[in-house]
Amino acid sequence: MQMDVLCYLQGEFVPLEKAQVAVNDRGFLYGDGLFETIPVYKGYPFYAEEHLLRLKEGAEIMGFPINFEILSLQEVLMETIKVNNVKRGFLRLTLSRGKGRRGLSIEGCTEPLILVVPFFSIPYSQENYQKGFRAIMVRGTRRNSFSPLSRLKTLNYLDNILARMEADKRNADEGLLLNTSGNVACGTVSNVFIYKEGGLVTPSPECGILKGITRQIAIELARKRGIQVEEKPLSTEELLRAEEAFLTNSLMEIMPLTAVEEKPVGKGKPGILARDLKKDYERITGCFS
């Protein structure tokens, strides 16, 4: 991260190294909060309204005492970009329930905390897209499709962290999580798509996934190409028999998935549809690689 970074914290901009969160903040103590990762292209927050709407819906589900206007938060995002001169990168927007007394009760939590931190690069390279990602099936934990938290972008990412640790230990680019029914749910930070018989399949929200913003964009782009997209349970067998597969999130955009458990997906190289959808995505963002 570059020098003299200013983050937005509770209504003002402060140097990142001087930003402080209270020791009794519930986001810190319990993971009681939400976050959004918002990409920045040419100095503009991409699909900001959709990210903020998802944040607001999550806050309502979690019972946060907050009534923020999406437009005012969009202004905060734009100002964060401006004061830091972010041209290409992303913003991490964190919403915590704020300070509270000891214990799980939320009584007395009246002032949620809002933090926006800018980042100036994207953690994926052109080589990643040229080779595609290699994934493992995570063995140590599963996605709880019965929990409403599986469909929220909460600050509690411990299952994902355990899965990421397993993927790192096995030298994989991503770890794929099964759900409580034994079907493929998602990656540690990504949604999953397969292509077979002329159509796309991606796990439905009922499978215990986060409805990713880029996931929805990919669905819309595919349908514009006349490709049918089905949201339904996805078995590991279907994944391994797919003609091609790819992963999505707001930073990786559309990433080819070329191997799972060291077995090739399709021909074991980035597929044509993933390539075409990536180009369509780049046309939307105005960034051509």
Automatic annotation (TrEMBL):
<dbReference type="GO" id="GO:0005829">
    <property type="term" value="C:cytosol"/>
</dbReference>
<dbReference type="GO" id="GO:0008652">
    <property type="term" value="P:amino acid biosynthetic process"/>
</dbReference>
<dbReference type="InterPro" id="IPR043131">
    <property type="entry name" value="BCAT-like_N"/>
</dbReference>
<keyword id="KW-0663">Pyridoxal phosphate</keyword>
<dbReference type="InterPro" id="IPR036038">
    <property type="entry name" value="Aminotransferase-like"/>
</dbReference>
<dbReference type="InterPro" id="IPR043132">
    <property type="entry name" value="BCAT-like_C"/>
</dbReference>
<dbReference type="InterPro" id="IPR001544">
    <property type="entry name" value="Aminotrans_IV"/>
</dbReference>
<comment type="similarity">
    <text>Belongs to the class-IV pyridoxal-phosphate-dependent aminotransferase family.</text>
</comment>
<keyword id="KW-0032">Aminotransferase</keyword>
<dbReference type="Pfam" id="PF01063">
    <property type="entry name" value="Aminotran_4"/>
</dbReference>
<keyword id="KW-0808">Transferase</keyword>
<dbReference type="InterPro" id="IPR050571">
    <property type="entry name" value="Class-IV_PLP-Dep_Aminotrnsfr"/>
</dbReference>
<protein>
    <submittedName>
        <fullName>Branched-chain amino acid aminotransferase</fullName>
    </submittedName>
</protein>
<dbReference type="GO" id="GO:0046394">
    <property type="term" value="P:carboxylic acid biosynthetic process"/>
</dbReference>
<dbReference type="GO" id="GO:0008483">
    <property type="term" value="F:transaminase activity"/>
</dbReference>
